[in-house]
Design goal:
Layout: H1 3-7, E1 72-77, E2 87-93, E3 103-108, H2 116-124, E4 127-128, E5 137-138, E6 148-153, H3 170-188, E7 194-200, H4 203-217, E8 224-231, H5 246-252, H6 254-257, H7 261-273, H8 276-283, H9 312-323, H10 364-369, H11 403-411, E9 414-419, H12 427-435, E10 438-439, E11 442-443, E12 452-455, E13 470-478, E14 481-486, H13 493-496, H14 498-508, E15 542-543, E16 546-547
Parallel strand pairs: 3-6, 3-7, 7-8, 8-9, 9-14
Antiparallel strand pairs: 1-2, 2-6, 4-5, 10-11, 12-13, 13-14, 15-16
Helix pairs in contact: 3-4, 4-11, 5-7
């Protein structure tokens, strides 16, 4: 999500939520011992007369010194008119695991107006080139190792998509995407494929509307939606994800933010006087006792504009940036210097050092390889992707959107993940949305999330994709909706904790039973042994009234805390022997 899209109330947003299930065992992929890598000499099932023009030469990507494998990229119209100039851009990677059946996962980046192929390169695609890294590397956490993956730049105006901006709301976005998807399915002969819809940030709007529209179409040849997953999503209007929880968040992370006593006291007093703290205490409750009111505290009658003195989020953000000039609302533990980003985003600062050249996807040689249109590419566009810059989707009360229960109840398979270090969309806002949503005949979670989020131990065979293991957060499931709170992650969960995102995909696809499973990664050919001991509680402490913190510590110590002794896998804070040349001790925030 672009910071500017949050700082300015120019986009009228709606209220949403999600859920989680597992497909029947007969539909699951084979075990890692049965998985097969692609045979380069074997013909691909996706090559045909319509798709040959989209084929990407896997050895020709500039700066990439390895073969990225089979992929297809290009543009397709959003309607049945083959000459329609309104087109969405895609990059499709068939799974490298040839035992994967008829399924495909869609990734949609948020914004609104940010590029999905940008996050292919920076988060969960086969090629990884993250800020501060010298060159692109092979991504062992690429989701195409699990399933067929396609990244789509949408709505029109985002990334390499082309045409006139005509979307006024999320219903229009869903309609346009479904037109594109029919063309994509027809081109690659994907009729009858199981579809999983995933995304992050503003895709908390996109994914539920698209998933719900696909389900309502009752056409499993094109729209057989089996699950949905959103990381750090936007589901509600401000003040729900920002002004209401910001004082509680800043207090929990006081050791990181470094505010002095007078500012902290003023912040907390304003939160109380604006009604924010009482709102948190009353409505983050387990079980939820009542629907949240349509009239929110601290805002004018438009339910968006803060009343005088209650625009707390922007004031806390300004103060944090004064203490730490390189403060990132996406990951609050970030420090100076700002890292060079080959995509030109750099945590929203657009910092590009002299002599570095254009952003990777703005290079003519890169565009040529992936059949991209000759247009200016930006990770997040400054142009509007909705008519008049406003998403006019109808808001049906804070934290509750009619399309979400439809997706949950009909798929029983939605995962909402949230990084604890995310400031731009605070995790308590997601919890407020969940506790204000009715699915499966009940309001919100009935019990407080406490269960551990376990990530299997594994061999880290290079520094480029090193990732921790053990209990890395808290996970909770009820009636088809799973919520995961991830301690070592901020807004870009799949970048900060790729192993958690990878495991989450295994759960979404039905490869493993859940986030307390001790099964190794399904791609782990070593079949790494896992500890058979009590894991204890999750390491993000969620209490009545919200999240207390997101890291190691004692629940009575203040700051970034979790319940004492929460992690019992392994020994104390040891997250496993990271197999490079030494064993590394890891402490999470």
């Amino acid at each position: 999500m672009r910071w500017s899209a949050i700082a300015h109330a120019s986009v009228a947003v709606a209220t949403l939520n999600l859920k989680q299930m597992r497909p029947p065992l007969a539909e699951q992929a084979l075990s890692p011992r049965q998985q097969q890598s692609p045979d380069p000499s074997a013909p691909s099932r996706f090559v045909n007369a319509q798709t040959e023009k989209f084929s990407v030469n896997g050895t020709a990507l500039p700066n990439v010194d390895f073969d990225v494998g089979e992929s297809y990229a290009g543009s397709l119209p959003i309607s049945s008119n083959a000459n329609d100039t309104n087109q969405l851009f895609f990059w499709f990677f068939p799974s490298e695991n040839q035992t994967v059946g008829n399924e495909i996962t869609i990734w949609l980046t948020g914004g609104p107006g940010c590029s999905s192929v940008g996050e292919l390169l920076s988060e969960n695609g086969p090629v990884l080139w993250q800020p501060g890294v010298f060159k692109p590397v092979r991504n062992k956490w690429s989701w195409h190792r699990l399933t067929n993956m396609v990244w789509v730049d949408q709505p029109i105006g985002s990334g390499f998509s082309q045409g006139n901006v005509t979307a006024r709301n999320e219903f229009d976005v869903a309609d346009q995407f479904m037109g594109f998807w029919r063309n994509f399915v027809d081109a690659f002969a994907l009729q009858g494929y199981r579809v999983y819809i995933t995304g992050s940030s503003y895709s908390g709007m996109y994914c539920p509307y698209i998933a719900s529209a696909m389900l309502d179409a009752n056409d499993t040849q094109y729209f057989d939606v089996r699950g949905m997953q959103v990381f750090d999503g936007l589901y509600s209007n401000n003040p729900i994800p920002q002004d209401i929880p910001v004082s509680s968040f800043a207090t929990a992370w006081s050791d990181v933010l470094g505010f002095n006593d007078s500012f902290t006291a003023s912040m907390q007093n304003r939160s109380t006087s604006c009604g924010y703290q009482d709102y948190l205490d009353k409505y983050i409750a387990y079980p939820a006792t009542e629907q949240q009111p349509s009239a929110l505290p601290g805002v004018e009658s438009d339910q968006v504009t803060p009343v005088e003195g209650c625009g707390l989020f922007n004031d806390v953000f300004t103060a944090a940036a004064e203490v730490n000039p390189c403060f990132s609302p996406y990951t609050i533990t970030s420090l100076c210097p700002v890292k060079y980003d080959p995509l030109g985003f750099s945590d929203g600062t657009s910092y590009i050092p002299d002599g570095s050249g254009p952003a990777y996807f703005n290079r003519p040689d890169v565009k040529a390889v992936i059949h991209a249109p000759d247009k200016e590419w930006a990770f997040c566009t400054n142009e509007a992707v909705f008519v008049n810059g406003t998403d006019t989707s109808v808001v049906d009360g804070p934290g509750s959107q009619p399309v979400i229960p439809n997706v949950i109840d009909r798929t029983q398979n939605v995962i909402l993940g949230h990084g604890s270090q995310d400031f731009v969309l605070i995790s308590d806002g997601t919890l407020l949305s969940i506790q204000n949503m009715t699915w499966g005949g009940m309001l919100g979670f009935q019990t407080r999330p406490t269960e551990p989020l376990f990530i299997p131990y594994h061999v880290n065979d290079n520094f480029e994709t090193v990732a921790g293991a053990g209990v890395l957060g808290t996970a909770h499931e009820e009636r088809g909706l799973t919520y995961i709170a991830v301690a070592p992650a901020g807004h870009f969960l799949a970048m900060d904790a790729p192993q958690v995102a990878f495991r989450s995909m295994e759960v979404l696809l039905g490869r493993v039973e859940g986030f307390q499973s001790l099964a190794p990664f399904t791609t782990d050919t070593n079949n790494t042994a896992q500890p058979d001991v009590d894991m204890g509680n999750g390491t993000v402490l969620i209490t009545q009234g919200g999240v207390v913190g997101g890291g190691n510590g004692d629940a009575s110590s203040g700051g970034n805390v979790v319940s004492s002794g929460a992690r019992k896998v392994g020994s104390n804070n040891w997250l496993g022997c990271i197999v490079l040349s030494v064993c590394i001790w890891v402490t999470l925030y």
